[in-house]
Amino acid sequence: MHQNWKFHHVSVVVRDMAKAMKFYEALGIGPFPPLLGPQGKVSLVNKTLHGKPADWELDLRHAEGGVGDLTFELIQPLEGDTPVKDFLEKKGEGIQHIGFFVDDMEQETAKMAERGFNITQSGETPTVKWAYFGTDAVGGFSIELMQKK
Questions:
Q1: How large is the average pLDDT for residues 14-23?
Q2: Is 82 exposed, middle or buried (0-12, 13-18, 19+ CB in 10 A)?
Q3: FRET pair for 30, CA 20 to 30 Å: which of 18, 53, 71, 127?
Q4: Backbone angles phi, psi at 89, to 5 degrees
Q5: CB under 8 Å to 86, separation ≥6 — which residues?
Q6: Nearest alpha carbon to residue 126 among 10, 46, 13
Q7: DSSP 50
């Protein structure tokens, strides 16, 4: 792993958020206060999908819980074509990505490109910019890099 990557979370894609939250809380993971749902949309800018500018909206349910020092993220895609929805349709529920914070997104993105890993989806919220990389050929999950604004 790169020295300046700071591990942040494991993200599990699920079909039913309420059922998943209940299941993981029974294991002692959580609690999962909902952060984003169908009524609340996050304002996103500079969105791409498979390397091209995109006009998709983030339409999903999202919750973060934890166990020890680990942040455990649950995502249920609702509408739109995204890598998260593709993952659920092709592979079913499971770990879709592992997220890391970086100090310099442009520098780390360039390093990933040099190694042959392309951005599958990216965007920015008011507080963070992020990008998913197509690293799922081995291990079945993607890497997400994030940088605080």
A1: 90
A2: buried
A3: 127
A4: -70, -40
A5: none
A6: 46
A7: T
* Residue of higher predicted confidence among 21 and 63: 21
CATH number belonging to domain 6-28+43-148: 3.10.180.10
Q: Where are the alpha helices (DSSP H) in 27-140?
A: 83-91, 105-114
| Cβ proximity of 72 and 9 under 8 Å | yes
> Does residue 37 register a pLDDT over 50?
no
Strand locations in 44-110 (E): 45-49, 52-53, 60-67, 70-77, 94-101
Domain boundaries, the chain: 6-28+43-148
Bridge partners of 70, per DSSP, are 67
Pairwise CA distance, residues 96 & 14, whole Å: 10
Residue 115 is which amino acid?
Answer: R
CB neighbour list of residue 116: distance below 8 Å, 6 or more residues apart: none
pTM here is 0.82
d(CA 50, CA 45): 16
